[in-house]
Write the structure tokens for this entry.
Amino acid sequence: MTSLLDSLTRVVASKLRTLGFSSPRLSLIHALLDRAYLASLRTEEGRFVRGSVTFADPRNPDVDPPILRRASYPAFTAFTDRMRLTPELLVKLSRAIDQWSGSIAVYGTTPSDLVAWGVVDQIVHANVRRTVPARLLREFSFAEEDSQDRDLELTGAARLVTSLASIDGLVLLTPSLGVVGFGVKIRSGPSVGRVYDGTDLTRRGTRAKTIDPSRFGTRHGSILRYCRADSRALGVIVSQDGQVRLVMTAKQRLALWGSVQLLDYEHDVRRYAVDSRRRRAFRSRRRAEARLGYSPMPKTLKQLSQLKVR
């Protein structure tokens, strides 16, 4: 378990650093994951608990507040007293704080002084009902149905193309992913020649290590020959065990990337980091005073009480 926890700690720390966050440190991440895991093994009133924690400095919990804050924007509420973070406390608070809309705010500078200091509210508010005009509701319903149709269409097309690849030969696609043919066999072509390791090639250039193409099967050999003949081609090889390899010309040299990891868009941390930096840069240029909501209507009881009646 320790080795798995260490690996998970490094993965989480790497993603946080990619997003531009220097804290929490590895030791704190390790302690948080360890206590959360121990809490997940316990029960409260015979039931396992589910919850979440948010690491935030109580002195400045929202490090990137929006210029225009909506009423449903997540807010931090501090406890009267801070409590030492233990698996037992996580179990109790997770039962009390619904993970649908809340999270446990925690902080510490060392594993020994980790505390639960408050609650994060309005984490999820997608299910809140709002009154909208019937016309907009109909348009939204149609758009949602259309989006579901496109998802089903894309899923069906992907499954069909995948099934075409189950027979001998390759599936030949256009650059726009239109199917030209399947079961295609490359009869002849230039010799494969030298094949570089793609990851090493991007770092070391011509000093990168080479790959012996003879250790692969005919499918790999066909793709390598085709990509050697057409420098604009992109070859994707999916093995029966699920391993994905990529063949393409990079820096005018034939390269093969092994064990390519396929990422869903929401797991693309680097893209999220780029978008976050752009958003922060935009906000830094906007020196307008932060305000709540889009309209001058009162949003809090205090604002309502101060409203002057004409």
User: Anything to note?
Assistant: The longest strand covers residues 75-84.
